[in-house]
Design brief:
Layout (H helix, E strand, L loop, with lengths): L15 H17 L6 H13 L5 H7 L9 H13 L3 E4 L4 E4 L9 E6 L5 E5 L2 H11 L8 E6 L2 H6 L1
Parallel strand pairs: 3-5
Antiparallel strand pairs: 1-2, 3-4
Helix pairs in contact: 1-2, 2-4
Length: 161
């Protein structure tokens, strides 16, 4: 038996109304914090929310224009940087992709379970980061962002394998 990977779909993308609600909530939160949700930031967040899974920056650039016109890369990268700083998106470095944050709060550590077989990604609560925060505090260090990435196999791939 070799390492066979079967591609399967998990929950699928969220509904348009779910995306609209999440965009409205993000917009309201930013306005409350005195930040501006520009058209570019809103579009990038909309694309991430609609995908419901991690998306590579070049795919965001390609999908950006409503009329099929790709965006200028700096526009998308600046928007991603802002969304990440505001806790609305996370960069998953090991797969070079971005994902909309499932909690929507700026000050939490993100932990991702990434299936090396089908690519499914799930954000889970990162209680392990509490120990990291304590250790950092003891060293006089302030952590501003933590992203933990754990690679393995999701339940469906474990069953299929």
């Amino acid at each position: 038996m070799g390492d066979t990977c079967h591609h399967h779909h998990h929950d699928g993308p969220p509904s348009a109304s779910t995306v609209a609600l999440a965009l409205a909530a993000a917009d309201a939160r930013l306005t409350g914090e005195g930040e501006r949700m520009t058209a570019a930031r809103l579009r990038v967040l909309e694309l991430l929310l609609a995908a419901g899974e991690p998306v590579k920056a070049y795919d965001l650039i390609a999908r950006f224009g409503e009329d099929g016109q790709p965006a200028k890369p700096p526009t998308v990268y600046r928007a991603l940087e802002f969304l990440e700083r505001m806790g609305l998106a996370h960069r998953i470095a090991s797969i070079s992709a971005y994902v909309a944050c499932s909690s929507g709060s700026a000050d939490h550590a993100a932990a991702f379970l990434i299936c090396d077989c089908c690519g499914a990604t799930e954000e889970v609560s990162a209680t392990v980061a509490e120990g990291l925060d304590r250790a950092a505090g003891a060293a006089g260090y302030v952590i501003e962002r933590t992203t933990i990435e754990a690679h393995g196999r999701c339940p469906a791939c474990r069953v299929a394998g």
